[in-house]
Amino acid sequence: MTFKEQLQEGIPATLPNKKEYPKNVNRAPKRKDILSFDEKKLAIRNALRYFPKEWHQELAIEFAEELKNYGRIYMYRFKPNYKIHARSIEEYPAKSTQAAAIMLMIQNNLDPKVAQHPEELITYGGNGAVFQNWAQYLLVMHYLSEMTNKQTLHIYSGHPMGLFPSSKKAPRVIVTNGMMIPNYSKPDDWEKYNALGVTQYGQMTAGSYMYIGPQGIVHGTTITLMNAFRKVLSKEETSKGKIFLTAGLGGMSGAQPKAGNIAGCITIAAEVNPKAATKRHQQGWVDLLIDDINDLIKRVKIAQLKNETISIAYIGNVVEIWERFDEENIFIHLGSDQTSLHIPWTGGYYPAGISYKESNRLISEEPLLFKEKVQKSLRRHAKSINNHTKKGTYFFDYGNAFLLESSRAGADVMSENGIDFKYPSYVQDILGPMCFDYGFGPFRWVCASGKAEDLDKTDKIAATVLQKIMENSPKEIQLQMQDNITWIKDAKKNKMVVGSQARILYADAEGRAKIATAFNNAIKNGEIGPVVLGRDHHDVSGTDSPFRETSNIYDGSKFTADMAIHNVIGDSFRGATWVSIHNGGGVGWGEVINGGFGMLLDGSKQAEKRLKSMLFYDVNNGIARRSWARNDEAIFAIKREMERSPNLKVTLPNLVQDKLLNNLF
To answer: pLDDT at position 252, please?
Structure first.
């Protein structure tokens, strides 16, 4: 069968042979054995419903083995034999070009070069899944190959419910991931219901098919580091020879060392999984691998003396570095953490003093002991960070739930009021007031032709548009504009592409719409092929996350999720090709609601109309919410937008003087 025929087939007509899992691949850790005897039978029953009855006896035994050995039923027998990667949009069998674009994006998310655990359909973050099992993948690709522009595919946590009649103006795909009844959104609920095969953790851009490899995170990390150094250094100082210490090269890719190189500092990223660290080194995302703490200390001191820009992956535990650097009196300028602490008990964070192999054994065989070890390590981790911050280190939470889980472990991370953390989230101090409140967020695009020359052309188009906008931009956003112009001009030189021919930059509503319009015109004129637009959920409007994206919301509403829900509904009828809404992406199951979109540009008038309508709302919905929270930068931004767009009417807050409130109670 040809590639196209295999995609069209869906569940195969004949039972494929059982496959052996490949060796020397980065496998997902075994999940917790949490199901009762009856629930395990239910999990098998749920899995078998994808297949004809005559296969059930053989598959039941196999699926029971998978559940026992891995804690999940991945249906590995049904993984396709063809290579999974983003092809040119023209290579996909589809009646709808929009559907073909979605097929391309799905395959990019599962490309072994891109995905963290591709055998288990996990893209990043330790558990950020595109689908729960390979049957779901097969069915979704089958439905997309059949879809017309008057149908919509509804996907429930990876499961394709089916094609429903809709209209040309409707989204082609609606995705939900992990949308639980609130009282069933604790970490063990994910373990249980994911093992049953009825829900999944879509992370942010995994289950919405918009992950573009490390590049997506590199840009946000670069912007964060540049502004963090601006906060701690004088105007005369540069980041050369200054240290940024962090952890996590598996779940959060190789973004941190690459961002550190672009920002011009010494980056040290600890990673306990040798395969993950080696993969990032081979891909060029980190300059040097070191597995001995003494060698690390020697190399860092040399880098400081020479004012080097270098990134080092330390194969080991980051707690060791914090403690030894304290003993050696090596000053850390910036400190953070990007381990996958949203899943602390299932491999998101590995405790100090225990080997990687032993930790993985404890996760599946002695989970309560593993939890104790993790919490003990977090207390130790936080204690060492506190020692450094007393010396002047600027530590910030990178939105991975480090401070949240440390506080739950009893670590010394709380401020004197016992309510707030003693360290800020990077959104509170940096991205919130400097970017999100002004409407700047992660605007992404993928050249669906797969041609590198198309990406080069879009880079030039975007740079030209931004430079023109900057000529008349107010001083309040000049820094953001210049940072992103510099970024896009250097993007090719910095070798950002992994998988699809994709790019990201931060832009506001004006920038996004004008860049997208210029792309659409270039497509219409035959200069480039079709382009898929999207963004990270980590954005102005997409996410309600009290410990990250909305951590700089101080009116008491940061624990509400109205904005994300409004965002996905509003985008869906304003022209998005697909929309998604997730529980848990980024900071953990039950801690956040986040949504995203994808949009195909094909050079048509309809595409231009859709992009202008949807991108405008996608950004300004969030600015309106942030301005209502009395954020000064957002009030400035929404007033400016209302002046430019007479049809926009937003409720503005009346500000109250503090002295009126002081003696009321």
So the answer is: 65
What's the token pair of residue 649? 């009417």
Task: Determine how many CB atoms are found less than 10 A away from the CB of residue 353.
Answer: 12
Helices 478-490 and 215-232, packing angle to 10 deg? 130
Q: Is 586 annotated as a binding residue?
A: yes
Res 134: pLDDT = 98
Chain centre to alpha carbon of residue 226: 20
At 587, which amino acid appears? Answer: V
| Whether the predicted pLDDT of 460 surpasses 80 | yes
Percent of the chain with pLDDT over 90: 89
Sign for the CA dihedral angle at 287, 290, 293, 296 comes to negative
Whether residue 419 is predicted with pLDDT greater than 90 in this model: the reply is: no
579 has a pLDDT exceeding 80? yes
- For residues 286 and 241, give the distance between their C-alpha atoms in angstroms, rounded to a whole number: 17
The DSSP result for 196-240, as a single string, is TTS----TTTTTTT--BTBHHHHHHHHHHHHHHHHHHS-TT--ST
DSSP state of 89: G
In the block, which residue shows the tokens 């009116």? 555
Is residue 564 a contact partner of residue 377, using CB atoms and an 8 Å limit? Answer: no
Torsion of CA 12, 14, 17, 18, to 10 degrees: 60
308 by Cβ neighbours in 10 Å (0-12 / 13-18 / 19+) ranks as middle
Least confident interval from 99-113, 250-264, 426-440, 633-647: 250-264
Mean residue pLDDT of the chain comes to 95
Q: Are 445 and 532 in contact (CB under 8 A)?
A: yes
Q: How does strand 266-271 pair with strand 288-290?
A: unpaired
Helix (H) / strand (E) element for 48: namely helix 37-48
- For 380-395, write each residue's pLDDT tens digit: 999 999 999 999 999 9
Tell me the residue length of the chain.
665
Could you read off the pLDDT of 337-352 as tens digits, one per residue?
999 898 899 889 999 9
| Whether the Cβ atoms of residue 281 and residue 237 lie closer than 8 Å to each other | no
Contact 566, 621 (CB under 8 A): yes
pLDDT of 327 higher than 70 = yes
In sign, the C-alpha dihedral spanning 492, 497, 500, 502 is negative
Residue 107's SS3 state is helix
Q: What domains sit in the chain, N to C, each tagged with a CATH number? A: 3-196 (3.40.1770.10), 214-424 (3.40.50.10730), 432-646 (3.40.1770.10)
Check whether 271 is labelled as a binding-site residue.
yes
